[in-house]
Design brief:
Radius of gyration of chain A: 23 Å
Number of strands of chain A: 0
Shape of chain B: flat
Structural class of chain A: mainly alpha
Helix content of chain B: over 70%
Strand content of chain A: under 5%
Number of helices of chain A: 1
Largest interface: A-B, 22 and 26 residues
Structural class of chain B: mainly alpha
Shape of chain A: rod-shaped
Number of strands of chain B: 0
Oligomer: heterodimer
Chain lengths: 54, 319
């Protein structure tokens, strides 16, 4: 009887993990900054935030 | 019967065998390099001048948002340019160390990064500033990527003459961010950068001719030759200098700007004349013109900012 083959998968190297982590942090910071920007601009514009003149 | 198919490449990683891209090794710095930060800085500066000299008021945070979106839009254009041009970038000494030809960033990653940034920049500018500025930014990105990079760059020696429009739009976007409209003044700023681009890039291409020829890019020196390019540089410089001075007699700028434009314009003409007289293999004059052309554009816009925009900018910030 043969044992089922274990799925090899993609195993990240230490360098790949480090690069992935730094990219994830950068994306999180960028999204956080975007949230803050929208929040601050909403405060600045008040109800006029929905008015977008051409 | 074996579960491993015959001829399977045992030593090859699973990702490569299955056709899936290898996990990326790209660092944050590689993505920043994709955005061409040096080009971005000039784009932001010219946009800031357009924004500062525009009449009317704008909240400092709205101004910051506009500049941020313009910067990100410029970065997106750079990333999309590097995605499409990876093949020719690998052949030129000036560009072969870019992240895609170096293999640090895969072409698909650069494409995804560029499209994401472009979408965010245009949508955020439209939502938080105004639709005209967002439309102009979208058009600029489209023009740089589709018209210049994908079409003109590889098909005509006039590539940078027409493609130069993409780099000339930022002051118009800055102006539109404040006023929500356009007028002669931002068009004049556009025309200055538009006319500045050919002598600037042709001066560079004169001492990088072999690079462009190797990559098969029909830059003017490759197609029309050295002497013709030198004549073109002088011709476009003679068109540029009066345009550079024009804001003064038209009343958009004061005497400080006028004097700066005349003096630096005269130096541009002198350097272009030196380039005309110079013969290969000497390339000193072209290098000098290339370097000075950057200073020329910077001085024109900086003087305009100091003379016209600075007071208005401070008043807006303190209002």
């Amino acid at each position: 009887m043969t044992k089922p083959l274990k799925e090899e998968g993609i195993v990240l190297t230490a360098a790949q993990k480090r690069a992935q982590r730094s990219r994830s942090i950068a994306i999180a910071l960028a999204l956080g900054a975007l949230v803050l920007l929208f929040f601050a601009m909403t405060l600045v514009k008040g109800p006029a935030v929905l008015v977008r003149p051409i | 019967m074996s579960l491993i198919s015959e001829g399977a490449e045992i030593g090859v990683p699973l990702a490569a065998r299955s056709g899936v891209a290898e996990p990326s090794l790209a660092e944050v710095g590689d993505y920043i390099a994709l955005m061409k930060p040096r080009v971005m800085s000039l784009v932001v500066f010219t946009a800031l001048v357009g924004l500062a000299v525009a009449p009317g008021s704008i909240h400092p945070l709205t101004a910051f948002t506009a500049l941020l979106c313009i910067a990100v839009g410029a970065g997106a254009s750079g990333a999309l340019n590097m995605w499409f041009d990876a093949d020719i970038d690998a052949l030129m000494t000036r560009t072969q160390r870019r992240p895609v030809p170096m293999g640090r960033v895969q072409a698909g990653e650069a494409l995804a990064f560029g499209l994401t940034l472009a979408s965010f920049a245009v949508v955020v500018l439209g939502l938080l500033v105004n639709v005209l500025a967002a439309g102009l930014l979208a058009f600029t990105i489209f023009f740089y990527v589709a018209v210049y990079t994908m079409w003109l760059k590889r098909s005509t020696p006039q590539n940078i003459v027409i493609g130069g429009a993409a780099g000339a739009f930022p002051p118009m976007i800055g102006w539109a961010a404040v006023t929500g409209s356009l007028s002669l003044e931002p068009v004049l700023l556009f025309m200055i950068i538009f006319m500045w681009t050919p002598p600037h890039f042709w001066a560079l291409s004169l001492y990088k001719t072999e690079d462009y020829a190797r990559a098969g890019i029909p830059m003017l020196p490759v197609v029309a030759g050295d002497a013709s390019t030198r004549r073109h540089i002088l011709f476009y410089t003679l068109l540029l200098v009066p345009l550079g001075v024009a804001p003064w007699p038209l009343g958009f700028a004061g005497p400080l700007y006028g004097v700066t434009a005349i003096v630096t314009g005269a130096i541009m003409v002198l350097l272009a004349a030196q380039v005309l007289r110079e013969r290969r293999p000497v390339e000193r004059a072209s290098k000098k013109l290339f370097a000075f052309s950057i200073l020329y554009l910077f001085l024109l816009f900086a003087t305009l900012l100091v003379e016209r925009g600075w007071g208005g900018l401070i008043a807006r910030l303190t209002a």
